[in-house]
Design a protein that fits this description.
The protein folds into two domains: 135 residues, 2-Layer Sandwich (Nucleotidyltransferase, domain 5), CATH 3.30.420; 71 residues, no CATH class. The chain is built from six helices and eight strands; from the N terminus they run αβαβαααββββββα. A four-stranded antiparallel sheet has the order 3-6-7-8. α3 crosses α4.
Length: 239
């Protein structure tokens, strides 16, 4: 298991942070095999924002998928839980272990459950013999890396970007108004380096620990401005 975390509410940003952790520590995979959760895929008729048929399935690109596109990682969708059996089985096993341990030890907080999760993932990866391969997963993984039998490849930032913040981020586009400002959820931000009425691309990096969000403004493949605002002012709850 390359990544595991418990969160109170599942968001696109949490999944982007998961990508960042895996890509920077293990490398870029050949592909991701996921279900059709709205974080991973836009499905017309289910995702409400475009319900009036302005967009059909897969024409709108979710935030999480945009990160994969920038990293040139292929994406495949499973059409049923059974199709992802090799993924679902260990996660079902892990879920059962966590729930039973928390119930037995009286753990009632997310942080307490995270400690149980970390213990179980460490045991699964580094100590337990896998029932199918008959090997400890970390030993099998490291041997595959040594023998170059893995499809993981080194992560590199591709031009015009120069920071991981421009890859692992939320994205949106805005048009500069006559006052040299843009609006995000009723928050007005003055932007320099972009002509009036031109579109600017925003690459947004929230930080839950500091309570601040860094906004990086791109225009014609150039970073023209960087600003910080309070998370509460930006109100990115929909992400």
């Amino acid at each position: 298991m390359l990544y595991a975390e418990l969160v109170e509410r599942e968001t696109s940003w949490d999944h982007i942070l998961a990508l960042q952790t895996v890509f920077l520590t293990k490398g870029l995979p050949f592909s991701y095999y996921v279900d059709s959760h709205s974080i991973f895929r836009f499905v017309q008729g289910r995702d409400s924002f475009w319900r009036r048929h302005y967009k059909v399935t897969d024409e709108a690109t979710p935030q999480w998928k945009q990160v994969l596109d920038d990293c040139k990682v292929k994406l495949t969708y499973a059409l049923s839980p059974q199709a992802r059996g090799k993924v679902e089985r260990p996660y079902r096993w892990l879920q059962d272990r966590i729930v039973r341990t928390c119930a037995r030890e009286g753990i009632k907080t997310v942080e307490g459950a995270r400690e149980v999760l970390r213990y179980e993932v460490d045991r699964y990866n580094n100590h337990q013999v896998h029932s199918t391969t008959r090997e400890i997963p970390i030993i099998r993984f490291e041997r595959a890396m040594r023998e170059k039998k893995s499809l993981l490849r080194e992560f590199k930032i591709m031009p015009p970007y120069s920071s991981t913040k421009d890859i692992f981020c939320l994205r949106m586009k805005r048009v500069i108004d006559p006052y040299h400002k843009i609006s995000i959820n009723n928050l007005k931000i003055r932007v320099s380096g972009v002509p009036l009425r031109k579109e600017v691309e925003l690459r947004i990096v929230p930080d839950k620990k500091t309570g601040l969000t860094e906004i990086r403004f791109w225009y014609k493949d150039k970073l023209v401005d960087t600003q910080q605002v309070k998370n509460s002012d930006l109100n990115l709850v929909q992400f």
